[in-house]
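Structure tokens please, single chain.
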Amino acid sequence: MVKMILADDEPVITRGIRKLVDWQGLGIEIVGEYTDGKSALEGILVKKPDIALLDIYMPQMTGVELLKECQAMEVKTQVIFISGFQDFEYAKAALQYGAVDYLLKPVIREELLGAVEKCVSSIRREEPWAEEAVTEEEKEADYGRLVQVEDMIYLPVFADVLYRKEENAQMRKLVRFSLISFLEEYLEAENLGITFVKNNHIVLVLKGIERVQAKETVSGIWKEACRATGHTAVFIIGKEAYGMGEIPAAFGECLKLQSYLFFADKMQIPILSVQEPVYSQKGDPDALGEAREKVLNAIIGQDKTGFENSFARFSRLLLLTADGKKEDACFYYCSAIRLAEEKMAVMGLPGRNPEMKELLEKGRGCESFGEMELLYKAAFAAYMECVRTAVVSSEKQDIRKAKDYIEKHYRENLTLGVLAEKIHMNPYYFSSFFKKNAGENFKDYLNRVRLQHAVALLVSTDKKAYEIADEVGFSDVRSFTEVFARLYGETPGGYRKRIRSADMGQDI
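Here you go.
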């Protein structure tokens, strides 16, 4: 764990820096906070922090004076200065005294992370597991820490961490450093073995651990690593080595399973072993094809629940069939999208005509299978929207066509079956279709249209009720009167009398 102190005569600044970053998740512990230069210097000498974040101007001793004192005593604490805008030139000049960086107030998170990353990189160069600074003799010394014992079993393990998509390069470096620091400290404390970096790979060499114990031991390390870093750690357990000379080759077997780490976010516990299958079941191309058809059918049928369920199954089967190959996973998703396009064309529905090469490249650019799954799910969901829009458009055309036919033929013996045939629909489906789109059932709508025309005749002509009933399509005057009274609250005759009386009153 990297230790850091904060010093500023404004407590609000130190509180803000604490909240600005998840220091614990980065493997950094804040071991002290100070409000003046003298107490900050004492904190550095007593607590020996790796990093000191100091205000340029503090009571009793300035940041630069403090830094000069540290240099005189050969203290290796890395210093980052914080200054106000008016102290900019002074802070910049202070770099010549050995400060790693300077930050202007208010402190910006990205700039703070960048400065801390510089310190961490400097610290790493002094660590024995930092390959760029480790000599051949030092590598031998690392292996020597495994303790030479006759018939010792060594178990190489590959380690890595799953980053979050929003994390930038600086944050990822710090998270990786946090994992390496934790593993080194944990293995040493538990006397399990050593940790070092080789060709940019994090290597664990466990000692005296047989294969039957390996999963349990590494599971314990995994839990603690996840807790310490705040990220999901991943491990690949290699074959046992019965001599130090066998370790590199055994570790090389771990690297053959690296491609599976792209799919690690879908693993409950991402611990792989070269001596065990990665998945408990094998991929089945036939089952994958069936699942793909169910996805396409759910899209065409506008079944949202069915789409969610079938796509989840399709993705699971796709993951198994891809078997650790990212490129294959892209291919299976893109092939399914191409088939969706073809199916839309066959059914006369508008497609999306996606650029398949571009879609493939987007899949290749994903950092995890979960990200890839969301990318292609969105592409399939877009087809769902295409079909919905087409269906809605078609329904609007059909309901307009039905209403237009009613308006032209309301005088006739118009039935649901006759109208359904004209619209080319099944009568049972047409009944629910009409109510859904017109807001009322077919019979009520037809009667309302007929009564609208009946009202016009009542007001503008002297035709008898039975004559009007026959003219607007009612089978007899009785049914006409009942429907009229139900809608207008009075008989046709009463309605005519009331309307004409009102008109005469206006003329007077």
